[in-house]
Design goal:
Blueprint (H helix, E strand, L loop, with lengths): L11 H11 L2 H10 L2 H9 L8 H10 L3 H8 L1 E3 L2 H20 L7 H10 L2 H12 L4 E3 L2
Antiparallel strand pairs: 1-2
Helix pairs in contact: 2-4, 4-8, 5-8, 6-8
Length: 140
């Protein structure tokens, strides 16, 4: 999967309408405060994501530098591991593309460093739990 545009790009007006229709006023305010226009465009252009992911991504960003928050999501497990791992692989593919936008094709070491520094696996777990709460359950 790639971040190359594969669907019509949303205009700012279309994006604002979708946000108003899908989120509460408080959630919308949080999205606008947490995500830049460019970040929302990346979400829009990403094959596995759309406007329904704005809030999950905005909240997930907080988990990168907050071990306590990340640990909260580690107490949950996916109901369907196959779905979880498919989505995680797609997430990692998107991350590889984004790392590659830094002027050159990323090396394996670049990707490993990015995964370690940004807690990518834990961050993905947080995203998945927030975005798909009906697809997770407490670990036993």
């Amino acid at each position: 999967m790639s971040v190359t545009p594969h669907k019509p790009r949303l205009s700012i007006t279309e994006r604002n309408i979708l946000i108003r229709e899908h989120y509460t006023q408080q959630q919308a305010g949080y999205i606008y405060a947490a995500l830049s226009k460019e970040e929302m465009e990346v979400i829009d252009d990403t094959e596995m994501m759309d406007f329904r992911d704005y809030l999950a991504v905005a909240i997930t960003r907080q988990t990168r530098n907050n071990q306590r928050l990340r640990a909260r999501f580690q107490k949950l497990k996916p109901v369907n591991p196959h779905d979880y791992f498919q989505r995680e692989i797609a997430w990692l593919s998107e991350m590889k593309y984004l790392v590659g936008t830094r002027k050159r094709e990323p090396t394996t070491d670049d990707i490993r460093q990015e995964i370690k520094e940004n807690h990518i696996s834990e961050t993905f777990r947080a995203y998945y739990c927030i975005r798909f709460p009906d697809k997770v359950q407490p670990k036993t």
